[in-house]
Amino acid sequence: MLGNYYAILQNEKEANFLEADFESLKKEITEILKSCELCERKCGVNREKGEKGYCKAPNHLLISSEFLHFGEEDFLVPSHTIFFMGCNFSCVYCQNWEISGWYEKGYSITPKNLAEIIIRRIEHGAKNVNFVGGEPLPYLKNILEVLEILKERKANIPIVWNSNFYHSKMVSEILNEIVDLYLPDFKYGNNRCARDLSKVENYFETVTRNLLSIDFGRADLCIRHLVLPSHIQCCSFKILDWIKDNLKDKCLINLMDQYRPCFRAKDKDDISRHILAEEFNAVVRKARELGLNYLW
């Protein structure tokens, strides 16, 4: 399941970004940013001129933190995790609400400085570079600039894209050029729950389209699913059914039981509590019955 990822770690193949044509990619994304359609919100603002859309992200790198993360999936540890500011979702239960909702200011950093930090983290044992948030998508152009510097330095390290996967079709093509391991959060099994809890439209169609657009000949996939209280039938089961029908032998699934009612979750009766053991166990049984490759 993680053949591409492990091949890079063992220096049996190069990370995808080392073969990327960054001049072409940067031209492509510059055009997208002139009337921003990075994500399916398609705000249409000119981010090249500093205009801000729903995510409120600037046109320069703004991060909350970066560190070697030892709490990720076992095969990722230690992971050089870089948390970007802002998000194109408004999840009422967001566990990183200080970052996604701009309650923190974050700090600016140049692509060159971030690339140098990544090099040092590699020297300290990082197995990958893990772009997360908030949401990394608004900073895709800046990330390309960072990776271009790493390419010049010949840093052969897997790139992990840790995202809500609500990007546009055009972005899928760009990501396939640079990402080695996709780590998407597959949150909802229908659009109603997505609209109610994260204020996004056409969620299910968008995320499933983007999952199917992955170039599995070059990259690997581990889907994360945070099990929500009261959302077993409508979300967890429907997600697992879709994976079984479309990606059963192409991905790992991390079933996550660490939901806690934070931020504004107390205002929603269905998610104002922790999940019950029987709820999570029901999801695990479902994954087992469907023959899925799950972690938990």
What's the helix and strand layout?
Blueprint: H1 3-9, H2 22-34, E1 62-69, E2 79-84, H3 97-100, E3 107-108, H4 111-123, E4 129-132, H5 140-152, E5 159-161, H6 169-178, E6 181-182, H7 191-198, H8 203-212, E7 220-226, H9 232-246, E8 252-256, H10 277-289, E9 294-295
Parallel strand pairs: 2-4, 4-5, 5-6, 6-7, 7-8, 8-9
Antiparallel strand pairs: 1-2, 1-3
Helix pairs in contact: 2-5, 4-5, 9-10
Number of domains: 1
Q: What strand line-up does the widest sheet have?
A: 3-1-2-4-5-6-7-8-9
Written as H for each helix and E for each strand, in order along the chain, the element string is HHEEHEHEHEHEHHEHEHE
Report the span from N to C terminus: 16 Å
- Parts with pLDDT < 50 across at least 5 consecutive residues: none
Q: Count of DSSP E strands? A: 9
Structure description:
The chain has 296 residues and is of the alpha/beta class. It has one domain: Aldolase class I (TIM Barrel), CATH 3.20.20.70. The chain contains ten helices and nine strands. It has a nine-stranded mixed beta sheet with strand order 3-1-2-4-5-6-7-8-9. The radius of gyration is 18 Å and the shape is globular. The relative contact order is 0.14.
